[in-house]
Amino acid sequence: MNSRCAFVSKIIPFSCVDGPGSRLALFLQGCNMRCKSCHNPWTIGRCNHCGGCVSGCSQQALSFSGGKVQWNAALCEQCDTCLRMCPQQATPMAQQMSVENLVAQIRKVALFIEGITVSGGEATLQLPFLHALFSALRRDAQLRHLNCLVDSNGLLSETGWHKLLPVCDGAMIDLKAWGNERHRFLTGRDNRQVKASVRLLAAEKRLAELRLLVIPQQSDYLAHIDALAAFIHELGEVPVRLNAFHAHGVYGEAQTWRSATPEDVEPLALALEERGVKTVLRPALYL
């Protein structure tokens, strides 16, 4: 088995919101976007072991040894003080884990889940690990039935997708804005590669979901509804999931933004349906 390792921010053994059915959700550390609306902003950066968070830990779960911040899970009470302190938008709780480590964890819950979803951060930044993990699952007689999905921002290159797709069942892609300027404002990055990834995955029948995040007074989907609907029709029969922004857990100016309500989401849902988009999935939960 491959001994590739990844920086893992969090593992949720049973999730019903990270793809179809009950799934193990694996969150990798590090992202190549800087989304103002990120609900997991501590997964964006990588710990540089500056040690600034150590003194702020009231439970003494953090220490500094050998030039690195050390985390003691037994003492940690998950108060998130260290996350709020970190200038890198990172976490000292991210752990380096091998493919073998993760396969062992997946094996413990395999009878109770339908698949795994690797998210982040941005999962595809650790592409060799991702490929090795999915390959290991496909080789394992007891685990090969598990559906393997990636939750991605879509910035992976065409070459990268072609490396991953032979061992991956599909990807859920977030298109944070239709217009390039609005996308750069919200994420810090251009969206041309995101749209290219969406088209490639749809052509390969591996686009599990196209996701649109509704942020009141910030989203531009309705302003470009005809172009957006035409783009979706190009993709074929693809589910379009509308997610509702909520300010809980975000950093910076997005903390002042209003959380989305059904009154914010429904006009977009109806506009897409009026233009012939067949599968529009509304948010299951509003916060």
Automatic annotation (TrEMBL):
Annotated signal sequence range: none
Superkingdom, natural source: Bacteria
GO molecular function: 4 iron, 4 sulfur cluster binding; metal ion binding; oxidoreductase activity
Entry keywords, A to Z: 4Fe-4S, Iron, Iron-sulfur, Metal-binding, Oxidoreductase, S-adenosyl-L-methionine
InterPro entries in the cross-refs: 4Fe4S_Fe-S-bd, 4Fe4S_Fe_S_CS, Aldolase_TIM, BssD/PflA/YjjW, Organic_radical-activating, Organic_radical_activase, Radical_activat_CS, rSAM
Domain 4Fe-4S ferredoxin-type: 67-96
Family annotation (Pfam families): Radical_SAM (PF04055)
Cofactor names: [4Fe-4S] cluster
Domain Radical SAM core: 17-284
Family: Belongs to the organic radical-activating enzymes family.
NCBIfam families noted in UniProt: activase_YjjW
The protein's name: YjjW family glycine radical enzyme activase
Protein source organism: Kosakonia quasisacchari
